[in-house]
Amino acid sequence: MQTFNGKTLVYGVIGDPIGHSLSPQIHGYFADLCGINMAYVPFHVKNENIPDAIKGAHALGIKGLNVTVPHKKAVIPHLVKLDKTAEKIGAVNTLVWSDDGYIGYNTDYAGIKKTVASKGLTFKDKSVIITGAGGSAYPAAVSAADGGAKKIALVNRTKENAENLASHVKSYYNIEMEVTDTAASGFDIFIQTTTVGFGALEGQSPVPDDYSFDGTQLAFDIIFTPQETAFLRHAKKSGVPNVINGFPMLVYQAAESFGLWQENIPNEDAHVTELEKRLYIN
Ligand code: ATR
């Protein structure tokens, strides 16, 4: 067992549920790598307890927190400040302790950009389709808009949420955005950000079986467990040349958070490979 002492720095992640989180192992790995005396703890926090949890964590001197599903927007009113990127995204996944309260950051944004880059691609002049309109869809849409995508289409179960995301992005970027009831084909990059395919919804896909991936260069599913979702299996079978799950993004966003709290992690791709070996449970 890892031993702690009076100088151990405490970090953690809040979410509901939290049991599936791989962040404690990833941050533990980074802490060992950098020789930092820290603990990283999962906290199961219900929505109604967010104000008390954040106030209590600050009072306890918890140096930083990650925020995961479904609290990435809900924590915002309880922070003292948002950094510019987090403000533009409208969702937060990393909190950094300051005297007055926590400052909110969004490292999913960098995680998404790095995932696309890991396949040798960028968003520049690409058409992008995103399923979902929750806490992961916001950084996906903003990464695409910021990276110079020529068009973004949004598809979500609750159309109003997709419309809100579209107007949010339009308030920062002059970009063509459309909200549709079903996923259209012919997009260069497809980013799947819903929870369809995960947990109780494992085996399901947000696109119908006859969806055509023709012309798609990259299919990216933010889900990392199971390793291959029905969506990714469908994309692979359809011949999409680049297919990637959410695991590398999880490591990239964690490395970015670790950089905000402690120090930058070099050679991220080597760590993705190593952590994939250590953590994948199918
Ligand atoms: P995250 O932070 O990972 O984005 P979230 O904010 O809870 O998680 O968002 C989950 C996304 O999955 C939402 O877009 C949600 O659709 P709604 O906006 O309609 O809630 C989508 N989602 C969840 N369950 C779904 C289901 N059974 N069918 C289709 N979409 C679903």
Describe the structure.
The protein contains 9 helices and 12 strands. With 282 residues, the protein is an alpha/beta fold. The strands form 2 sheets. It has a 6-stranded mixed sheet, with helices on both faces. The chain has a 6-stranded parallel sheet with strand order 9-8-7-10-11-12, with helices on both faces. The chain binds 2'-monophosphoadenosine-5'-diphosphate. 2'-monophosphoadenosine-5'-diphosphate binds at residues 69-70, 72, 132-137, 156-158, 161, 193-196, 201, 206.
What's the topology here?
Elements lengths: L8 E7 L7 H12 L3 E7 L5 H11 L3 E4 L13 E2 L1 H6 L4 E5 L2 E5 L2 H11 L8 E5 L5 H10 L4 E5 L3 H12 L5 E5 L8 E4 L25 E4 L8 H8 L4 E3 L2 H15 L6 H12 L3
Parallel strand pairs: 1-2, 1-3, 4-6, 7-8, 7-10, 8-9, 10-11, 11-12
Antiparallel strand pairs: 3-5, 5-6
Mean pLDDT: 96
Strand proportion: 15-25%
The helicity comes to 25-40%
Bound molecules: 2'-monophosphoadenosine-5'-diphosphate
Would you report the number of β strands? 12
Major sheet attributes: 6 strands, mixed
